[in-house]
Fold these 4 entries.
Entry 1:
Amino acid sequence: MSRFFRSRYSNLIPYTPGEQPRNMEYIKLNTNESPFPPGESVVRAMEKAASRANLYNDPECTSLRRKAAELYGTGADNITCTNGSDEILYLAFSAFFDEAAFPDITYGFYKVYADVLGIKADIKPLREDFTIDVSDYTGIGKGIVIANPNAQTGIALPKSDIERIVASNQDSVVIVDEAYIDFGGESCVDLTKKYPNLLVTQTFSKSRSLAGARIGFGIGNEQLIADINTLRYSMNPYNVNTATQWAAEAAIEDNESYMANCAVIVENREYTSSRLRKLGFDVLPSSSNFIFAKSDRLDGGYIYEELKKKGVLVRHFTDERMKDHIRVTIGTREQMDIFIGKVEQLL
C-alpha cells in the first residue's frame, strides 16, 4: 500500500475472483462459466465488429436494448446495458443505497461494494439449512439485494417470496440479482412492471456463454433506469464495446440454442448431485449451474487442494460457515465424470 492510498480504504478487503491459472490444462469447475463455447453467429458478429474498432461504440446500446426488451418482455427504456452485471450492481448500490441488507453467504461483491461506497451493511445470516429467512427482509425500510438463485448455495426463493419482500419495502429499492436464473429459478422481471422499487439484474456470462465478453442488464422502472444511466454517463458512457453489443444481439437471436444448453447443464447437475450423494456428500438443492456440497469424511480445503493437483479446479471458501464445502460448477457430462472419478480416488 502506498502512502497516497486514501485512508478510508486501508481496511478494504477486495473481492477475490475465481482462479484462472495458466500453468497447466485444468478442468475448470470453479468460476461458473458455461462449458459450451458461443455459437457461430456470435463469433461472426464479434469478428465483424473488429473492423469498426476505430469508431466509438453506441453508448445507448440502442439495438441491443430493443432485442433485450423483446426477450424480457419489457420496453427498451426499462433496460440499461452494462459491462457485466457487476457494473449494474455497482451503479445501483451507488444510486440507491445508504444502507443495504443482504445475506451473510451470497455473492461476495455486495459486501465489497458496501465497503467501497461507505454504505452500512445489514448482513442477515442464512438459516442453518442455508435458506433465506424472508421475514428478515420484510418491512425493514432499507435497501435490499438478494441473489436469486443465491450464490454460493444455489438455492432459489420462489417469486412469491420475492414479491413479499418488494411489496413490504416500497420506499426502498430492492435488487434481485438473477445471474443464475436460467438454470431453474423463477424470474421476477415481470414484477418490475408492478413495483417501481424493483430492479432486476441479469448477465449473459453464465447461460449464454459470454463471460469473457462482459455483458449485463438492469431491468426496472424507467425512472430507476434513468437514475442509473445518469451515473453511468457520469462515469463511463462507452461501457459496452461494439463487439460485445453485437455478440449479445446474436446470442438473443439464437436464444433457443442457449436455453437448450442450460437444459443439458441442469441434467448434468442432477446427475452429479446424485453421484455425490451416493458417495456420502451432503449436496444442497440447486437451481443454478453449480452445486454446493460437503463430505463428512474429507475437509473442503483438502478436497480443493487435492483435486487441483489432479487437474480439476473447484471453488473453496474459507469463511467459517462455508469452509467444509466445495462449490462445483456444472460442466459437460465427460467433465463431471472425471470430477467424480477424482473424488472417488480421494475417498
Entry 2:
Amino acid sequence: MKISNAFRLGLVGTLGVGVGFLILTSIVNLSTVITYIGVAFFIALGLEPLISWLERRGIPRWASIVIVFVVILGIAVGVIWAIVPVIIEQSTQLVQAVTDFVNRGTYEQWYQWLQNQFQPGVVDNAVAQGWAELQKNLGTITGGVLQAGIGIISGAFGVLIVLILTIYFATSLHNIKRGAYALVPASRRAGFIDIAEQVTDSVGKYVIGQISLALVNGILSTIFLTIIRAPYPMLLAVIAFLFSLVPLVGTLSGSALIVLLSLLLGSPLTALVAAIYYLVYMQVEAYVLSPRIMNRAVAVPGALVVVAALAGGTLLGVLGALIAIPFAASVLLIVRQVVIPRQNQL
C-alpha cells in the first residue's frame, strides 16, 4: 500500500511538473501573439476616452468607434502621404552625405584629429581590430540584415493584426468588462467595478497624454529645425516624435541622436544651437507640459516612475516601458483604496 501511494505521489508530481513546463513553454512560444494582444488592448483603452466623449454627445457607440478609427486612420494616411516621400528623399541624402563624409577629406581630418588625441598607434590598432572583427562576423552580419528584412515584413503583418485586434477590443470592451465583473463575488463587485473603471480610465488618458507630448515635440522640432536650417529637418522631427512615444528616456535619447546627426552632417554651431534648444525643451516638458498633461491621467511619484519604466523595459522591451507607468498607477490605486483601508480596520 505504501509503495502504491509513493508511486501515485510520484506520478502526480511528475505530471504536475510536466504540465507546468508545458504551460511555460506555450507562453514563451506565444510571446509574440501575447504582445500583439497586449498592444491592441492598450491602444483600445487609450481610444476609449475619445469614444466615450462622443457617446456622451448622443452618438451611438458603433458610430463613435467608426468616427474615431476613420479620423485616426485618415490622419495617419495623410501624414504618411505627406511625410514618407520627404523622409525617403532625406534618408537617401543622409546616406549619400555619410558616404561623402567617408570618401572625402572630412573623414581624414576627423581621423587625424582622433590620432592626435591619443598615443601613436592606439587609434590604428583599434581600427584594425574593429576591421578584423567585422570580417570575422561578416556572415553573422549578413544573416542579421536578412533577419532585419524578414522582421520588417513581420512588423507590417503585426501592425495589421494589432489594428484588427484593436477594432475588436474597442467594439467589445464593454462586454469584456461585464464578463470580468461577473467573475467577482456580488458582495465585492461594486468596489471592484469602481477601481477597474478608474484604472482603465487612467490608462486611456495616459496613452492620449503620451501621444500629445510626442506630437508637441514633433511639431516644435519641425519648426525649430527648419528655422536653424538643420540637415534633414523633417526626418529629424520624425525621430523626435517616435522617440518621445517612449516614456522617461525617449525624449533624451531622441534629442541626443538629433544633436549628433546635426554635428556630423551640419555644423558645430547648428549642433550647439540644437543642444541648447533640446535642453530647454526637456526642462519645459518635465516641469510644465508633462505635469499638466499627465497629472490628469496618472498620479505616480517620480521615483516610482523611474523604477517602473526601467523594470518594464527590461522585462518586455518597448511595450513594457509603455505600460509600466499606468500599471504602476493601477497598483498604487489598489494599494491606496484597498490595502490601506483594510490595514486601518485591523
Entry 3:
Amino acid sequence: MQYDLIVVGSGPGGYVAAIKGSQLGMKTAVVERAELGGICLNWGCIPTKALMKSAQVYTYMKHAANYGVQVEGEVKPDFPAMVQRSRGVAETMSKGIQYLLQKNKVDVIAGTAKLTGNHELEVTDKEGGKATYTASHIVLATGARSRVLPNLPQDGKKIIGYREALTLPELPKSMVIVGSGAIGSEFAFFYNSLGVQTTLIELLPHILPVEDEEIAKHVDRAFRKQGMKVMAEANVEKVEVDNDVCHVYVKDKRGKESQIDADIVLSAVGVQTNLENLGLEELGIKVERGKVVVDDFYRTNVEGVYAIGDIVHGPALAHVSSQEALVCVEKIAGKNPEPVDYTNIPGCTYTSPEVASVGLNEQKALEAGYEIKVGKFPFTASGKATAAGNRDGMVKVIFDAKTNLLLGCHLVGDNVTEMIAEAVAIRKAGLTADDIRNAIHPHPTMSEAVKEAVEAAYGEAIHV
C-alpha cells in the first residue's frame, strides 16, 4: 500500500505520468474509476477521429467519379457500423494503455480516489470497499467532462453532450449544435456529412473562436457550401422538448429571436473540471476559477500533492497534459526539466477542411505591438492538393518584421494537422524566415506550402 508515486486518473496526463515515474525508478500506481486511457482515448480524441474517418470515406465514395472510379448502386452511410467501429478503435487503444502500464510495472488500482492527507488517499471500489494508500508524491490528473449550462440541461437523450454524440442509437434527421470550438465543429462536420440537417450556433463573432479570423471564416464558408447552417454571434436562450422535438430559441446580435426545431441538441460549450469529492478543501489545496493552482512544475500549495492536465491552467489538450506529466514527474525525480512553453502549443481541429495553428494569430500579434509580415499560400496553387482533388485551404504565416522570427502559423485544408509540428519546431528552435526558406521542402507535398508562404511574406513568392 506504500508507493513512491500515485497518479489519480489514467488519461493522457495520468498514464504518461505513471509510466514516466516507473521508468525513473519509482514504485508507481495509477488509480482509475472508469476505462484506462481516460476521456480522450475512450470518449474524445480517438473515437471522434474514427468517426471523422468514416465520414471522409463516405464523402470520397459519393464523389468517386471525380477520381475516375465508378461505384455501382447508391452509397449509403451505415451509422451503427460507424459507431461500432469507433468504439472498437477506442477499446483497442484502451487495451494498449493497459499493456503499457503492465510493461512498465505500474500497478492499476480500480476505484474512486479521495485525498485524506498530503501523502495519503482512500480508494473506493465499485462494490463500496475502501482501501488506503500512501505515497511520497500524489499527482492529480482527473481531467474534465462536458460543461452543463443552466439553459441547456442535458438529459442524455434529446439534449446531449459529446459522450452521447459518439453513441447515438440512430442517425437523427436534424441536429442543433451549440458551441463551435473543436468539439462542436467536428461533430457538426460529421453529422452534416451524413445528411443530418445541421445548425451550428456560436455566441462569439466567428466559429472556431480561438483560431485566426481569416482561417475561421474559411471554414465557415466551407461548412455553408456543404449545406450546414452556421449562426455566429447568436445566443441560445432556452430549449424546450415537446413530443421528441427540441424547440431551440435563439437570439442574434441584433436582438432578433428565432426558433429552430431539431431532433437532437448537442451542447458543446466547453468542459468542466473534475474536482469534486477529491478532498481538496479538506487539505486546503488552492483552487481558482475551477482550476487547481500550481507552479511551473505542477506543485500545489500542499507538499507532496501535484496537479496536471485539464484541472490546471492552460489549454485542455491531450498533448499538453502529456507534456505537463513529463515535466512534473521528472522534477519529482530530481531532474531539471524545461517548463512547458504555453505560447507554443499547437491546436488541431479535425473537420473538413482541417484546421491547425500555433502561436499568435494576426489580430493578437498586432494587439501585442508587433510590426508584422504576413505570408499566405493557397492550396489552389499546390500541385499535391490539385492531384489529391481538394484545393480548398491555405497556409498563413506571421513574422516579427524586426527579428524575422515566426510569431504564428495557421493552416486550413486537407491533412494540415500533420503539418503543424514543423512550425512548432521552428518556433522552439528560434529559426528565422531565412532558415525556413533555405530548408529544402520535398515536392510535391502539402508541406512545401509552408516554405512558399514564408517566401510570400517577404515578397519572394514563386508560385503565387
Entry 4:
Amino acid sequence: MNTRLSKEQSLLCMLLCQALTGESSREAVLLCRQADIKKVLQAAQKHKVLPLLYEVLCERWPGEAIDAAELKWVENISRTTVRQSYHLLFLTRDLVKLLEEAGIPVLVLKGCGVAELYPVPELRKSGDVDVLIPGSCAEAAAGLLEKAGFSVKEDQHANHHLAFGSKSGIDLELHTMLAEPFQDVRINRGMEQLLSRCFDEKGYRECLGVRLPLPGEPYQALQLLLHMLQHFLRAGFGLKLLCDWVVFWNRQEVQETVPAFLKLADICQVRDFSEAVTMVCKEYLGLRKDLPMGRSRDRKLAEEFLQDVFAAEEFGKADKDRMVIVQENSLRAYIKEFHYQMKLNHPRTSPYVILWPALWLVTLVVFLRNNRKLKRGRVKDILRNAGNRSRLLQQIGVDKQGGRNRL
C-alpha cells in the first residue's frame, strides 16, 4: 500500500479486497497488529461498507486484533443491513409489478441489481429504491405511486428524477435519465442518445430470488460510472461505489462486455473517468489486473483519487467544506459555477435574461441559508476546497466533463 495512506486506510482497503475477492493477505495480518482496529471499523461504518467485512472479521481475522464487543457491534449492524436489504427487495418487486402491469417500461438501477453481484448480497447497504422510466411515462407513473400510498417528497433535489416517500420510511426515486444533467452538453447528448437503447436491451435477472428488470450489462456499467461521476463532481463519494465497480467487473462472464461498455463511455465522453476509477480499484480493492479497461494511469493519481474518496466518506457529508468541484481554480470558474447553480434551481425562469439579477440574488440567499441550516463550513473554506479538488479533476482528465447538482 502507498505510504501516504494511513495504516487504518490501508488495512480497510485490504479487508475490503479480501471480502470482495476471497483472497487473504499476509500484509493485512501484519498490519492489523499495528493499526487501530476501532478506527478501521469506524471508517468502514462511515463509508457504509462495514457489513461487507462481517465474514472476514468472523472467519479469517486474527482473534487477538478485535474484541468481542467490537465484533458484536459489527454483527448488529450487519443484521440490520440484511433486514433492510430484504425490505428494499420486496418494495422494489412491488414497484416494478405496479408499473409493468400499467404498461410502463421500467428498469431497476443500483440497489438490488448491484447487491446481487456481491459474495453475500444481503450485506451490501442500500438506502432507497431507484428505477428508470421513460420521461413520457413520468406523470402516469407518479399518479400510480400516489394512488398506491407513496407521497411526493416536499424537497426535490434534482430536475430529472422525482422522489417519493413510502409508509415504511424508505425513499423511492423515479428517474427519467441515466443520471442528472451534466454541465457538459456532450455527456447529456450521449445519455439522451442511449436512453431508449437501455430499454431495448434490458434483461431480467434473479436478485436474491426475485426476478427484476435490469439494464443490459454495458448499460448497467455505464450507469454505475455516471452515478459515481455525478457524486464526484458534487461533494464526492465513498468506498461503497468503488466496491460496486469491483464486483461488477470481477465476474468472468462480463469480460466480453468491456468493448461494448467502452463504446458507450466514449459516446458519453467519460472514458477518462472510467480509467481513473478502474485504476484505483485495481491498485487497492482487488479488481482483476488483466481487465482491459483502457490505458493505465499514474499510481500517484490513484493515491490522490483514493484520498479524496476517503475524505468524502459515503457521499461527501463528512467534510463540511465539500460541496462541488469547479473546473478550474479561478474567479471565472466560481462565477460560472454560481450561474449554473442559478439555472439548476430555476429551470423555468432562467431562460429570461432580464430576470437573471433577481435569480442570482435568490440563489445567493438560498445558498447562505442552506449553508447555515446544514452547518457547513465557511464560504471561504468551501471555495478553497472546491479549488483544490478541481486540480484532481484536471489530473484525471475530466475537467471538461463537469456536472453539478444544486448547492
